[in-house]
What does this fold into?
Amino acid sequence: MTSTFIRHELKAFWRSKNTGKSIVIRVVMSLLILYLLVNIFVLGFFLDVVLGKVFPKDDLVISFCGIILLYFLSDLFMRLQLQELPTLRVQPYLQLPVKRNALVRYLTFTSLFSVFNLWPFMLFVPFILKIISADYSSITALAFIVSLLGFTVFNNYLALYIKRKSNLNGWVFLIAAGVIILIGLSDFYFHFISIRKISYSFFGHLTTQPALALLPVAFGGLMYYLNFLFLKSNLYLEELGSRKDIKYKSSTEYPLLSRFGSAGDLAANEIKLVLRNKRSKSALIMGLFFLFYGLLFYGKPGPAGSDGFKVFIGMFMTGIFIINYGQFMFSWQASHFDGLLVSKIKFTDFLKGKYLLFTIISTGFFVLTTPYIYFGWKTLLIHFVMYLWNIGVNTTMVLFFANRNYKRIDLSKGAAFNWEGVSGNQWILSLPLIITPYVIYWPFAFFGHADIGLTLLAITGLIFIFTRSFWIKKLEADFYTKRYTIAEGFRNK
It folds into this structure.
């Protein structure tokens, strides 16, 4: 049955109207992947030299055993961001008399054909054959390779399991990514644990007890079985549909938003859009990463620790979602934009929903930056000033440029190497967002009155917030002059 699935997929590929474009993209991506694999292989071949320079005081085998778990931790994080789910290709068979186990096995094994599953072998096997095999034995080298296979399979199916669960609940993805980040910070920043020591405690014992290599293989088999059960229990369309009917709620599942009426409904739907789609979710994840941006600069002498630089950092940490997600407004609704034009939804409420979305997420980001008070009360004050600027001025500017964005985005596609929707408009938008606050701040800071500049930034942000209804009317009038051009651009696939 697997050969039938493969044959049908090949026919579907060649009969697609975008076959030519797909071939070009696949050829370019294949060349890029081949180049990366060659570089990884070269790095793996000289890994003993690299480890000798990075850890000059450690034995090569000890340092090698210490980095393996670090690699697989970062590998899991990259898989959560980049690895695709092989789900859509078997949907036509769900209504045919095809055995469920055959479909599930096909879905499960198809995911093994990923470039992520080649990287650990290209990187570590050359070292194992050069050093481990020579210093110990072929059995020990085989044990290392088998353990790599087990951890690779485990990461593969764990990442897929998390991503499939996150399709039902977007918080699963955020929690999983947060746990990985927390583990990394616990080692490299807080020094609570040592991942290298944990890694060596397992892989170091492989040199004396090769049978331990079966342990990661067992973990990999367990994750395969969990994926198998999950897919089998969620296979049929009618089961998925009934489950969605049971779980579906209106925007009142966000009690804070229910009080805002139609604008609250629209904001709630957009929050679901952000959490359930790969491209939009990546904008939120990037915003969470930027929350650690201040750790790179705060507390350092010189320009990096100045108030002027804190204005820049504060604007990005509290407003990166507005900038990153807002630059593709209204492309996120491209697939149903024609429906919005003919629906009973007032565009005023549509804009209010956008303002509400940005205000909620930017507020959350500001709250998450409050620990930076460690670097002084003024640091937190600057963050608050830029928070007001973001939800007042930058939100309005982003929505203004949204009326000039005609590039669609397909939400079903991943975020990795996806340039869909990108145009010169994004580059033009970034300039005023970054430069405008300094137009107000720098003249005063230059003459030694930086506090006045911060005050004016806060006042300007508050003015835009309190006059939001005025700007919504202006944006609505501007939209009506360009709505058909936007809709025509969104229809071009």
Observations:
- The chain has 21 helices and no strands.
